[in-house]
Amino acid sequence: MVMRIFYKSALGAALVAAFSCAPMAAHAGLFDDAEARKAILDMRNQIDTLQHTMGDKADKSSTLTLADQTDQLRQEIARLRGQIEVLTNQLSDTQQRQKDFYVDLDTRMRKLEPQQVNIDGKTSNVGQNEQKSYDGALASFKNGDYKGAVAALTDFLMRYPQSGYAPSAQYFLGNAYYAVSDYKNAIAAEQTLIKNYPDNPKVPDAQLTIASAYTDLKDKMAARRMLSTIISQHPDSPAAQTAKERQAALK
After folding, report:
1. What is the DSSP track for 108-172?
2. Strand 122-126 and strand 115-119: pairing?
3. Per residue in 95-129, pLDDT tens?
4. How many CB atoms sit inside 10 A of residue 214's CB?
5. Which pLDDT band, with edges at 50, 70 and 90, does 29 fall under?
C-alpha cells in the first residue's frame, strides 16, 4: 500500500511537470537561451529522478501493480523526452534566427558607414547620402540640365561643405553657371575654388572658365591676364596650351 501511494505521488509529480512544460513548449519561441536551457535541464532532472525511483523502490510483492505504474512512468518519461526534443529544436531555430538577424544588421550598418573614395588623387570618407547627392548633381550637369545642376550643386555644397567632392562640385558649379550665360556667377564660383583649393588639379581648367567668362563679358584685358596666369602658374598643363591659343586669338 505504501509503495502504491509512493508511485501515485511520483506519477502525480510527473504529470505536474508535463503540464507545466506544455505552456513552456507553446511559448518557447519567446524564451531566451538561458530560459530554454534551464527548462530542458529541469525536465532531464525529472526523468533521472523517475528512473532512479523506479529502480530503487521496486517491490517484488506487488509485481502487477508495479508493472502498471512502471509503464505509466515510462510513458511520462517518453513524453518529457519528446518535449525536451521540441524545446531543443526551438532553441536551435531561435539561435539561428538571431545569428541571421545580426549578420543582416551588420551588413546594413556597413552600407551606411562612410566609404573611402579616391577623389582627385586624395582618399576621402564619403557617406551614402553624400555620394548619392553628388552623383545626382553631376548627372544633371552631364545630361545638359544646367539650371538643375546649379541648384543641385549649390545644395550639395551647403549640405557637405567639408566633403571630398566639394572642390569638384565648386568647379562644375562654375561651369553650370557659364553654360546658362551667368558669367559673373561663373567667375565667382571658379574663384572660390581657386581660393579654397589652390592645389586642386581642376584649378587650371577653372581659370580657363574664368577667362572665357571675361571674354563673353567683353573684358578682354581681364581675359588676357587670366590666360597669362594659367601659362605662368601651370606651364605644363593642357590648360596652358589652350591658354596660348586663346591669347593669340584675342590679339
Report:
1. HHHHHS-EEEEETTEEEEE-HHHHHHHHHHHHHHHTT-HHHHHHHHHHHHHH-TT-TTHHHHHHH
2. antiparallel
3. 888 787 767 766 665 555 768 888 988 888 999 99
4. 21
5. very low
